[in-house]
Amino acid sequence: MKNDQNYNEVQKLVYSMLVENTGKHLLDSGGIYGRMWQRNQNKTIDDFYNEPEEIYYFDETYKDLERTVSVFHYLTNDHQIDEICEEFNKLNSDPGNWDANADIYGTSKEAWNYLNEFAEVKILHTFNTYNYDSDLSQVLQGSHLEIDGEFYTLIQVHGGADVRGGYTDAKLLKKGYMMGDCMIHQYLQEYIYDLSDELEYINDIYSYGTNELYKGKKLDQIKSIILETL
Description:
This protein is α+β, with helices and mostly antiparallel strands.
């Protein structure tokens, strides 16, 4: 177990978003199954840090291999926090006006004005991963920005039950690079390609229904079934 002070600022921020109370609604299904923020509050930052970056599941009914990518690892592996992020996130934590008057979500007028007062800001792409073939463990909503030639991601984590609501306040994170198509991450937008070659290196495959880990001959059998369906 790591001491909390050993985690960097991005890891602490992402963890706070994963456990943020995004509210309840009588008409959503969270009262039955638990909303994502409620389930996440049973986990420590150590739990998220130590979970696998990706998990493969085999659906025996549809003979399909599925992948789940950890939102915690995705956001903490690919982002940083600089002075611009720190000031924006502070202003966007408890604002008095949420109308940013721009093609973005979860951002206050105060925080958005702060960015535009001293920098040239371009909105490159606004997204919700629910609308794409994303393998992320939770839905993300946000925008890719270019601020004075540097790339940033304005991100919200969906912590509710119904994808139409229940998002965290937006937080600004700096990216090291940006792809030409401005999608959230090429690795998450592609289907598993060349699976016949990839399968050799995927040893941890779980049952989609029972979470059982396939081992030995059963694992070889599952891999054979997957190859037959390609």
